Amino acid sequence: MxxxxxxxxxxxxxxxxxxxxAPVVFSALxxxxxxxxxxxxxxxxxxxxxxxxxxxxxxxxxxQPFNDLLFQAQTLHRAHFDANRVQVSTLLSxxxxxxxxxxxxxxxxxxxxxxxxxxxxxxxxxxxxxxxxAKSIGSTRFCMGAAWKHPSAKDMPYxxxxxxxxxxxxxxx
Length: 173
Description:
Elements: E1 2-9, E2 12-13, H1 25-30, H2 43-46, H3 55-62, H4 66-80, E3 87-95, H5 124-136, E4 141-146, H6 156-168
């Protein structure tokens, strides 16, 4: 489980717009009269981590009552992790705006007028300073986000230097 401890752009906190999110769709679907109810799963069933899901099994997740699904997720999580411990992560945008991707949820996409100004790749030293600050406040993971499909050949050596520097601090990337 990860918690974003700080969301920064060039070292300052971002002022995020007040975003309203629609109610969770899972609970609305799960409580429709025509939706079949799931039977509670045993702890041994829910503690099995799988990567071979069929389409029917994935669809079945959407019709389960939300609290049952939450319980199953919690049981699986507890089987593999300490339930009372979280990983603190810090996210830094190392290249902001004008991304060629068309991710509808992302303000970095160049396909929409989000008001986000395009900024060049941050200098390596600035990124490493932010990573050191993140570590000093308790982060164990430092995520570097960039508005691109892939780094350009020109930017790749700098990105590699950033990753090596962050790893040398003992942080996950």
